[in-house]
Amino acid sequence: MQEFLPAPVTLEAGLRWLDLLGILAFAMSGALLAVRKRFDLFGVVVLGCVTAVGGGAVRDTMTGQTPPLFLRDETYLWTALLGSFLAFAFGERLARAERALSVFDSVGLGLFAASGALGAIKFGLGPLGVIFVAMISGVGGGIIRDLLANEVPEVMYRRENLYATAAAAGGLAVLLLRPGLTPFQTQLAGALVVILLRWVSRQGWVKLPVRRLPDGSG
């Protein structure tokens, strides 16, 4: 039976490819926002790359893994550059494929959140620290993107489309499942939790509550 199972190395390589697809999607989302705001080529590339590697850079800094992964393995940075240039060259066509990009975006969010949680556990952080690092790993790049583009960070108000909450839940899943699974299995399970929550929220089945104040109140 064992000979029919994929080798761990093959699975890890496949996970890395999914990670790179997430980087590509993050870069495209940032670069597309820059294109919509009529940034020049340099601005498009900067916003795309920051979106793609920003969260991972914050994660690595917080967990003591310096220099950040994208500087130790430039494949990530080259992928971010590729996504940025693709968005600049084919922005109109890529905008039509927004649903496909959102799938890769969810995969990247899940993988980054889970890997951030694993790094935080290895660094010896407590439960809240693990969940916080997982969330920042997933959404950090998007927050930096929105601030640079003079936008309110999307994670703060899109209650019908769980994003930061899904990343935090993935971190919690990693924390709970880590004792009984290998690191690879834990990362995959955490990523799946994020992807599932994103899908459920997109169906409109889960929304975060919003507190509304009466008009004219302070």
From TrEMBL:
Which key words tag this protein in UniProt?
Answer: Cell membrane, Membrane, Transmembrane, Transmembrane helix
How does the UniProt record describe the way this protein sits in the membrane?
Multi-pass membrane protein
* InterPro entries attached to this UniProt entry: Gly_transporter (IPR005115)
Q: What coarse category fits the chief subcellular location reported for this protein?
A: membrane
Top-level taxon of the source organism: Bacteria
Q: Which residues form the Glycine transporter domain?
A: 17-90, 103-178
* Gene Ontology CC: plasma membrane
> Where found in the cell?
Cell membrane
Task: State which residue ranges cross the membrane.
Answer: 15-34, 41-59, 75-91, 103-121, 127-148, 160-178, 184-201
Listed Pfam families? Gly_transporter
- Family in the record: Belongs to the UPF0126 family.
Tell me what this protein is called: Glycine transporter domain-containing protein
Lineage start? Bacteria, Thermotogati, Deinococcota, Deinococci, Deinococcales
